[in-house]
Amino acid sequence: MSENKTSKYFKYAIGEIILVVIGILIALQINNWNEKRKENRQEIAILKSLQNDIKSDLRDLDFSIEFKKTMVKEYSNCLAILTDKKEGTKEEFLKDFRTILQVGGVTLNATTFNNLQNNGELKLIKNKTLADSIVGYYNTDYKGWETSLRDYTRHNFAPYLLEFDYTPTIEMKFIDPQLQPFVENFTESLGDYKKEEQPLEVYKSNYMIINMLRFKIRNVLGLLAAYNRQYKYANLIHESIEKQIN
Fold first, then answer.
1. pTM of the prediction?
2. Which of 26, 63, 89, 165 would give a disulfide with 198, using CB separation of 3.0 to 4.6 Å?
3. How many Cβ atoms from other residues are within 10 Å of residue 244's Cβ?
4. Number of domain units in the chain
5. Residue 235 belongs to domain spanning
């Protein structure tokens, strides 16, 4: 009798242990499942935020590409006038010459990416190919062209033009909308100043002006190629994120 009771108690204890172990395993499984759901939600939120930043980049790049195309066309017109391949007045020349001191560039919207790097959360993007592409996108080197254009303009072109002739008047559409009310209140005529303007013929025989335009065209064409590559890269990542989310 005693042996039977001991055997029953032993079986009962084993059964209790098994039930406890099963309960623990189920709890761990539920906890893991909840953690995965949480990570999936985090990943989707991160990817959507990155996608919004890239949409902003696409808009900026699109604007800059079109603007730079216009610059190349206008500077080519300037050279055509200076070399007498095309008839034109000084006013027509200056209309296309007006952006010669323009040095604006594109700054990628890296807010989400920088936060992910700082917080070590890039690992939440499970698709490693996509994660590597995102890192590559924010580390592409198109800034070299912008730096060359900006430095040469500021240190060479601008000082020379300020001494050579009156700087071209910038059209209102090229001025920051927040500054336009102040600019509108400033009216001037070059005839108000004692020093006379340089005639177009002087521009035609000036090596610095001609080389300035040649340099600008080459540099802007290089920058255009870099912007187009960045635009395609942005589109590719945007589409990859869309596939990952859906």
1. 0.78
2. 165
3. 15
4. 1
5. 2-245
